[in-house]
């Protein structure tokens, strides 16, 4: 059996952190794009499409992410696709992220006062023009703090992909803990690395929100 | 290749799911009650307590909110025994849930406390109440009422998050699906069934909490009128 | 043919009927004050003319353009009639100048330079030429409302609907807005305004319409309406307003 020094553990964990970061980025960007598409449906004019997106978000927010990962992993397999844990993890996290972002962003669109819709309508703007020039720019500003805040949930969410066998920070941690019997140190370090990834995001979300409340304009 | 869904195995394995769901319910009951209680104390310390208490509580809240629940669970179950803190898997799961919910609810409740009009505190002290009495009798309940929907959502989130406790062999709802699929090789169906039960639990839990909220707060409000 | 033509207009919110058959004909250049208690339906009437409320029955036309509730027709109608709101509703993410330019560029497809020339002209007209690059939250309520008027004027409407345009203002700011409205009236702009400013209505308007319980209860030139009200409801209302 090989002997692990503290630095061996630490460097191995750091190497695995790449995958946590990469998966977080894929989930966040992919989920953002999908979320944006769904947002337009969610605030659109077709009621039954709106209902479908609403059902989608309720489904993903009302079930455990771990179940979604299992279903993606085994479900994609059923479709005859040979799935790697990486692909299943990416698909599930993108769908999950999109579901939450749609709700966050819809709240931001709703937060734009009714008078803004009326004023732009009275100037003769069409629905698309109102959205494009008046409502979305304002909603976008409001949406930045909660969106940054949600990115923390995405990073933490990637930890669950270890359970379906994707090797990222948490999985590397469990392997090292099993190999070294130094669970306290290993999991302490893993927690610390997650904290270093997440805390700046939490902090900037909070600062952004404070700034916006202090001077909401432009 | 055409896959045929098969749920006939449920006839044999449904008791496993019932037991698993029951464990999940017990976990969130204990985690919810103790977690919110912890959250109230921490929120008080953060919003109104002395700095010497507020600072460590802030560190605790940030540490928990910025690390995955799964790692918190592993740290408690696998890491703490090396400090001589040994517990069984169910105790570890409950402790992790209490600590996790405690941190989140502390932040939520603190927001409720900080939204309390200053006049309420002044009214309390003008009646010669101590700050702690003012908090306990005047501030706390309206603050909880204000943030109750957010708190309820957080409890549901913790319940759904508890699905990872199967990783330390707690026999919860996810464990039931793992068990069933290892015997029947019907993985997709097994997880599908437990997903549906989780969804039902989430809806029921939300209803129960909202009902509890109206029970606690509406009677108080009526009495106050 | 009247500029604004309203025939047998009915409007309900659920069970409650707010407008119970309104007939109103406004000639070009008329300045009309709509007065009445809150809940009498006067704001709703104004919002119907602009298509902000869907109507249950009846007909509205402005400058020959019928109110038809699809996007294309609404757009044509709204190009003929501008609206000023109680709460200003300026776009907070744009400067005063950009507020005035936006719809010109987007809806009228004017080029930027052209829109800016027009914007500067109307901003001067409301006396805010020097506030072109200020954001709404850097302006007082009265200034914001004047920008809102400039924003509507830039679209060169045939008529303006003013929905209690001074009600949200501090008393000392009411005068500057009324002065702008008065100047518009003097220039021959057709104005239809819901207002609580009785002195202003008496001075400036050519006709006063008193609404009561969803109907036009009494109408006529201000001299008659204020000096010689015929119905007890109007007498009661004027008595209240004077007190």
From TrEMBL, chain A:
GO biological process: amino acid transport
Residues in ABC transmembrane type-1 domain copies: 17-205
Molecular functions (GO terms): transmembrane transporter activity
Parts of the chain that traverse the membrane: 20-41, 62-81, 87-105, 148-167, 187-208
Gene Ontology cellular component annotations, sorted alphabetically: ATP-binding cassette (ABC) transporter complex
Primary location group: membrane
Swiss-Prot/TrEMBL keywords: Cell membrane, Membrane, Transmembrane, Transmembrane helix, Transport
Family: Belongs to the binding-protein-dependent transport system permease family. HisMQ subfamily.
Protein's UniProt name: Amino acid ABC transporter permease
From TrEMBL, chain B:
Cellular component annotations (GO), alphabetically ordered: ATP-binding cassette (ABC) transporter complex
Location in or out of the cell: Cell inner membrane; Cell membrane
UniProtKB keywords: Cell membrane, Membrane, Transmembrane, Transmembrane helix, Transport
GO biological process: amino acid transport
Membrane-related topology note: Multi-pass membrane protein
Transmembrane region(s): 20-45, 57-80, 147-170, 190-217
Main location: membrane
Pfam families: BPD_transp_1 (PF00528)
Domain ABC transmembrane type-1: 21-209
InterPro entries from the UniProt entry: AA_ABC_transptr_permease_3TM, ArtM/GltK/GlnP/TcyL/YhdX-like, MetI-like, MetI-like_sf
GO molecular function: transmembrane transporter activity
Family membership noted in the UniProt record: Belongs to the binding-protein-dependent transport system permease family. HisMQ subfamily.
Protein's UniProt name: Polar amino acid ABC transporter permease
Species of provenance: Thioclava dalianensis
TrEMBL record, chain C:
GO terms under cellular component: plasma membrane
Domain ABC transporter per the UniProt entry, residue ranges: 4-238
Cell membrane listed as a keyword: yes
Keyword rRNA-binding belongs to the record: no
Membrane topology (UniProt): Peripheral membrane protein
Localization of this protein: Cell membrane
Superkingdom to which the source organism belongs: Bacteria
Keywords assigned: Amino-acid transport, ATP-binding, Cell membrane, Membrane, Nucleotide-binding, Transport
Secretion signal span: none
SMART domains: AAA
GO molecular function, one term: ATP binding
Family per record: Belongs to the ABC transporter superfamily.
Name of the protein in its database record: Amino acid ABC transporter ATP-binding protein
Organism of origin: Thioclava dalianensis
């Amino acid at each position: 059996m090989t002997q692990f020094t503290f630095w061996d553990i630490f460097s191995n964990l750091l190497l695995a952190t790449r995958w946590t970061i990469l998966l977080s980025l894929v989930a966040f960007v992919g989920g953002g794009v999908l979320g944006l598409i769904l947002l337009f449906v969610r605030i659109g004019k077709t009621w039954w499409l709106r209902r479908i997106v609403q059902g989608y978000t309720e489904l993903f927010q009302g079930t455990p992410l771990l179940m979604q990962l299992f279903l993606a992993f085994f479900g994609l397999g059923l479709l005859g696709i040979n799935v790697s844990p990486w692909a299943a993890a990416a698909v599930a996290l993108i769908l999950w992220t999109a579901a939450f972002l749609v709700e966050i962003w819809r709240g931001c669109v709703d937060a734009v006062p009714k008078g803004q819709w009326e004023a732009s309508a009275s100037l003769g703007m069409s629905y698309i023009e109102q959205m494009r020039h008046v409502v979305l720019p304002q909603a976008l500003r409001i949406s930045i703090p909660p969106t940054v805040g949600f990115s923390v949930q995405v990073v933490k969410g990637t930890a669950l992909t270890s359970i379906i066998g994707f090797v990222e920070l948490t999985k590397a941690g469990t392997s090292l803990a099993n190999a070294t019997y130094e669970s306290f140190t290993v999991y302490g370090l893993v927690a610390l690395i997650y904290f270093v990834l997440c805390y700046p995001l939490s902090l900037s979300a909070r600062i952004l929100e404070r700034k916006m409340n202090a001077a909401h304009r432009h | 290749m055409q896959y045929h869904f098969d749920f006939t195995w449920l006839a044999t394995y449904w008791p496993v799911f019932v037991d698993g769901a029951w464990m999940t319910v017990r976990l969130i009951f204990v985690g919810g009650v103790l977690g919110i209680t912890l959250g109230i104390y921490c929120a008080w310390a953060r919003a109104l307590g002395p700095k010497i208490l507020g600072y460590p509580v802030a560190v605790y809240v940030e540490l928990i909110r910025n690390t995955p629940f799964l790692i918190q669970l592993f740290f408690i179950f696998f890491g703490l025994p090396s400090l001589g803190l040994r517990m069984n898997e169910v105790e570890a799961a409950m402790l992790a849930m209490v600590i996790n919910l405690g941190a989140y609810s502390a932040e939520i409740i603190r927001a409720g406390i900080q939204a309390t009009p200053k006049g309420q505190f002044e009214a309390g002290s003008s009646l010669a109440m101590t700050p702690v009495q003012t908090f306990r009798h005047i501030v706390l309940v309206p603050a909880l009422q204000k943030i109750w929907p957010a708190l309820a959502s957080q409890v549901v989130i913790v319940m759904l998050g508890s699905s990872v406790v199967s990783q330390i062999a707690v026999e919860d709802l996810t464990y039931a699906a793992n068990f069933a699929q290892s015997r029947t090789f019907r993985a997709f169906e097994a997880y599908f069934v437990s997903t549906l039960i989780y969804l039902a639990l989430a809806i029921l839990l939300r209803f129960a909490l909202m009902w509890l909220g109206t029970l606690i707060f509406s009677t108080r409000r009526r009495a106050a009128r | 043919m009247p500029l604004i033509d309203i025939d047998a207009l009915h409007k309900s919110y659920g069970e409650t009927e707010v407008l119970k058959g309104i007939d109103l004909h406004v000639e070009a250049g008329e300045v009309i004050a709509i007065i009445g208690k809150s809940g009498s339906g006067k704001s709703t009437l104004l919002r119907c003319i602009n298509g902000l409320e869907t109507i249950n029955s009846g007909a509205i036309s402005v400058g020959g353009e019928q109110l038809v509730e699809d996007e294309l027709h609404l757009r044509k109608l709204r190009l003929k009639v501008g609206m000023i709101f109680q709460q200003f509703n300026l776009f907070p993410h744009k400067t005063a100048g950009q507020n005035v330019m936006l719809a010109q560029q987007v809806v009228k497809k004017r080029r930027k330079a052209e829109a800016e020339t027009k914007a500067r002209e109307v901003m001067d007209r409301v006396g805010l030429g020097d506030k072109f690059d200020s954001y709404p939250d850097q302006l007082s309520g009265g200034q914001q409302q004047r920008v809102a008027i400039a924003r509507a004027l830039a679209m060169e409407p045939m008529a303006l609907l003013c929905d209690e345009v001074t009600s949200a203002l501090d008393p000392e700011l009411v005068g500057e807005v009324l002065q702008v409205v008065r100047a518009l009236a003097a220039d021959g702009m057709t104005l239809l305004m819901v207002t609580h400013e009785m002195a202003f209505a008496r001075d400036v308007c050519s006709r006063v319409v008193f609404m009561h319980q969803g109907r036009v209860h009494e109408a006529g030139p201000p001299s008659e309406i204020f000096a010689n009200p015929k119905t007890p409801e109007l007498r009661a209302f004027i008595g209240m307003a004077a007190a």
